[in-house]
Write a structure and sequence with these properties.
This protein has 465 residues and is an alpha/beta fold. 47% of the residues lie in helices and 14% in strands. It contains 13 helices and 14 strands. It has helices spanning 3-22, 80-95, 117-132, 150-160, 177-191, 197-212, 224-228, 247-261, 293-305, 337-356, 368-390, 406-431, 437-460; strands at residues 30-31, 37-44, 50-57, 66-70, 99-103, 142-147, 167-170, 234-239, 266-271, 279-281, 287-291, 314-315, 400-401, 404-405. A 10-stranded mixed beta sheet has the order 1-2-3-5-4-6-7-8-9-12, with helices on both faces. A two-stranded antiparallel ribbon has the order 10-11. A two-stranded antiparallel sheet has the order 13-14. β4 (66-70), α2 (80-95) and β5 form a beta-alpha-beta unit. It is elongated, with a radius of gyration of 30 Å. It starts with a helix and ends in a 5-residue tail after the last helix.
């Protein structure tokens, strides 16, 4: 054996001995081009189930701060873009010298109509335990981070674990999910230039019906009790151009609540030209892939500067909002789902009966009657399609005329034609000196449909300007 080979073997033995002296070797760490390592971990949720996770860590992380990422709404794994979005947050932390655990979100029994914030908060705390025992962060300096929906879940988790080192929220809401969604819907329409009954009546009515039907999970969730129990430093940030969370009201609400309970270790920041997820944006809706540089700097400096960085309360001026949020009024009994279904059923029976009896020539009514029925069905269908379309935050409203999308104008035009045509049919039939019994029955069916259509169209704003 040559002296050179012997030296190499001695060096290897010394390297392995040193690694064992410091603890277990890292688990299959994958290093990214920017020198961020990815370490797979398993998170034991405590209810007999586990979920996989990945710790994004700076090289050689052992005594650095750590943070557990709590997802916003959705499963966090719907598509590659969303997966990369959360990975981008975790990578930014690791680049800044903070190990970040990103775990797979619980998706069983998680739907638009049901999601258990309490259970999700317990999962977040399971992530804290996993990161503390991973050897990839200082166990005494592990905190929580929550985005959007996570801005309700992460504070709830932190309020149950006073030993959580810190809490960071991004785009957190002080108001309920229903009120936040109503504000987001109205803001989108307002900034798009939509005016009139579509924005003032149709959109808020649609949300109230969804909430009243019980298919809007946690619609009335109150975030203040959990926020009031926080005992750790809090950093809350909002994008200046957030269009999903009212940033000015939320910042003001956080500040007022913390001041009222005497909490001093909070920092409330606004990120210029950033959207709901702290990404660079022009108008709040176009999301660029990169995070706002100010976000990364503010978060990194705050975490590494603890406890000094949270020694005194600090709040940026609240950003301006185009609109203020408003409480979502509960449905009255007369406008609930049963009443809506009954109205649509009567409308359907009237129109269906009118159409089925059209084959008898002796029962025919003035030509306007068919146009009336067609206009009723058409405007109802267009309004229903708009209801589904508007539920998507990315919905394209198309060109506007007098502040109204063309589809809405079409629905309104058909609705007006239906009412006018129904009145003309009644007048024309009376002028003709009556009608055969079958024609009278058909006129009654058309009248029944009109009696259901007009209140529905007024309620939803289709017959309003």
């Amino acid at each position: 054996m040559s002296p050179h080979t012997t030296s190499i073997r001695i060096a290897l033995v010394l390297a392995v001995t040193a690694a064992l002296a410091w603890g277990p070797l890292p688990r299959a760490a994958a290093e990214e081009p920017d020198h961020v390592e990815r370490h797979p971990v398993t998170v034991d949720r405590g209810d007999g189930t586990t979920t996989p996770g990945v710790v994004f860590a700076p090289p050689g992380a052992r005594s650095v701060p750590g943070v557990v990422l709590v997802h916003g709404s959705g499963t966090g794994r719907e598509d590659a873009e969303q997966r990369e979005r959360y990975a981008g947050f975790a990578t930014a932390f690791a680049r800044a010298g903070v190990s970040a655990l990103l775990y797979d979100k619980r998706t069983d029994d998680y739907t638009p109509a049901h999601r258990d914030f309490s259970r999700l908060a317990d999962d977040a705390l399971a992530g804290v335990r996993a990161l503390r025992t991973s050897g990839l962060a200082d166990p005494r300096r592990v905190g929580l981070w929550g985005l959007s929906e996570g801005g309700w879940v992460a504070p709830l988790a932190a309020s149950r674990a006073p030993d959580t080192a810190f809490l960071i929220t991004v785009a957190a809401n002080i108001e309920s999910p229903a009120r936040q969604q109503d504000w987001a819907n109205r803001t989108r329409l307002h900034l798009a230039g939509v005016r009139g009954s579509l924005a003032d009546r149709f959109a808020p009515t649609a949300l109230r019906q969804i909430v009243g039907a019980g298919v809007f999970a946690n619609a009335g969730h109150d975030s203040e009790p959990a926020l009031a129990r926080l005992r750790m430093p809090v950093l809350a940030v909002w994008g200046q151009k957030d269009r999903l969370t009212p940033p000015g009201e939320s910042l003001t609400g956080f500040r007022n609540l913390f001041d009222r309970i005497g909490k001093r270790d909070y920092t409330l920041r606004v990120i210029p030209n950033a959207d709901h997820g702290a990404h660079v944006t022009e108008d709040g809706y176009d999301r660029r892939p990169e995070l706002a540089p100010e976000y990364e700097r503010i978060v990194a400096d705050w975490v590494h500067g603890l406890p000094g960085s949270a020694a005194a309360p600090f709040a940026d001026p609240p950003p301006a909002q185009a609109l203020s949020s408003a409480p979502v009024a509960p449905l009255a009994r007369w406008e609930g789902g049963a009443a809506q279904a009954a109205g649509l059923a009567v409308l359907g029976v009237g129109l269906g009966g009118f159409a089925l009896t059209a084959a008898r020539r002796r029962w025919r009514l003035p030509r306007s009657a068919a146009l009336t029925a067609t206009a009723m069905a058409g405007s109802t269908a267009v309004a229903g399609g708009l209801l589904v379309h508007l539920m998507s935050p990315q919905a394209d409203l198309g060109p506007l005329v007098l502040g109204r999308p063309l589809a809405w104008l079409a629905a309104q035009g058909m609705a007006a034609a239906a009412v006018a045509g129904g009145a003309w049919t009644a007048v024309a039939t009376a002028r003709a000196g009556g009608a055969a019994p079958g024609a009278t029955a058909r006129l009654g069916l058309l009248g029944l449909a009109t009696a259901a259509f007009v209140p529905l169209a007024l309620y939803w704003g289709v017959l309003l300007p």
